[in-house]
Write a structure and sequence with these properties.
The protein is an alpha/beta fold. It is built from 14 helices and eleven strands.
């Protein structure tokens, strides 16, 4: 299906105020690097989304807008029904400018300063900033370590489990059994769950995403997400969520619409979501297949040149999380060579609390992926 769309032609993003390309010096200290960094893709969004946006622009009037309307809510319900075989209660829907903004509001609702917030490690740096920036204590548990999870959820001041499902940066897709166990533990210990599912639409063949709504039980919970990751329109802003408890839902909306002054959403985001969820499935399947090919190329190259890594593609997403510890490289020296000699920007694992790893974004044309993995292999060879 990927052949129906052109993902090979490079699109010049420089000079478009692009964080990944134009903002590379902010993180790496040098302009002009070839970036494999922030998690957006170098592809244009689905043609159906572009057509809907053009039609809305042609209307020409951009007044205050409501998200609480049937076109949006029914599109979300359609997506969950067709993509995940899940019926959602659209009465539980809420809206926000971003997933992290939603997370911040929920943390302020459900925790107080000094309370513990449990996350899986390695941890998406946006979670860390949101949690510690609010004065809450981040409590990390390694992915797959149930004993640590039980221990941290049982602490009296543990108030929220922030779940990344699928997990970023590892690309782990949680099984139904794992999610059910987390829900049971959280409910037992009175811990609320915020499930960030923004990477769910990029689950690869052989794995199945289970929305939190299917395992939530009677505990306090929220599912937060957006179509912006899978369909590559984060610059339009906009996210949505589902909150189980009616009182919590009312309090969230009160905070957003009055305290934060965000009653009117970005109309182009609503337009993009509706088009993506109603008409964009074929494009998403195609781009996911293309990205799977990119990840396959990375796996082939690493198995040939760095076989000791034993690297395999992630279960979800377009972020190759690569464990370089078996190669015995120094993180700082590797980054120096990547930047100074190879002229590429690749995220170091320390950003996510995991020294010895790198995160390589392969949501881009194959030729760029080839350049990135070649640079990484050469840099590892130069510093080991």
């Amino acid at each position: 299906m990927a052949e129906l769309y052109d993902f090979d032609t490079a699109i010049d993003r420089r000079g478009t105020w692009c964080v990944q390309w134009d903002g590379v010096a902010d993180r790496f200290g040098v302009d002009g690097l070839l970036p494999f960094t922030i998690s957006d893709m170098d592809f244009t969004t689905a043609p159906e989304v572009l057509a809907a946006l053009r039609a809305r622009l042609d209307h020409g009037v951009f007044g205050y807008t409501t998200w609480w309307q049937d076109d949006f809510r029914s599109a979300v319900a359609h997506w969950y029904a067709t993509r995940y075989g899940t019926e959602i209660d659209t009465g539980q829907l809420v809206y926000g400018p971003s997933v992290l903004s939603q997370l911040s509001q929920l943390l302020q609702m459900w925790t107080a300063e000094g309370d513990g917030v449990v996350v899986h490690t390695p941890t998406y740096d946006g979670f860390r900033k949101a949690i510690t920036g609010l004065g809450r204590e981040l409590r990390g548990v390694p992915v797959g370590d149930e004993e640590a999870l039980v221990r941290e959820l049982a602490r009296p001041d543990a108030k929220v489990l922030v779940l990344c499902s699928p997990h970023n940066p590892t690309g782990r897709v949680w099984t139904a059994a794992e999610l059910t166990r987390m829900a049971e533990l959280a409910e037992r210990h009175g811990v609320a769950v915020v499930s960030d599912e923004i990477h769910a639409d990029f689950v690869h063949e052989g794995h199945v995403h289970v929305p939190w709504t299917r395992v939530a039980g009677e505990g306090r919970w929220a599912l937060i997400t957006s179509g912006s990751k899978a369909f590559n329109f984060p610059a339009l802003t906009g996210s949505y969520g589902l909150i189980g408890d009616p009182a919590d839902r009312a309090e969230y909306l009160r905070r957003m619409e009055t305290a934060e002054g965000l009653a009117s959403p970005a109309v182009l985001s609503l337009t993009a979501h509706i088009a993506a969820y109603r008409q964009g499935a074929a494009w998403l399947d195609a781009v996911r297949a293309y990205v799977a090919g990119n990840l396959g190329h990375v796996a082939e190259r690493l198995s040939t040149d760095l076989p000791e890594l034993g690297w395999e593609p992630p279960q979800a997403g377009y972020l190759a999380w690569i464990d370089l510890r078996a190669a015995g490289v120094d993180d700082a020296e590797l980054q120096r060579v990547l930047v100074e000699r190879e002229k590429v920007a690749i995220m170091g694992g320390s950003v996510y609390g995991a020294p010895g790893f790198v995160r390589l974004n392969v949501g881009c044309p194959r030729a760029k992926v080839e350049r990135g993995v070649e640079a990484l292999v050469r840099a590892v060879g130069a510093v080991r």
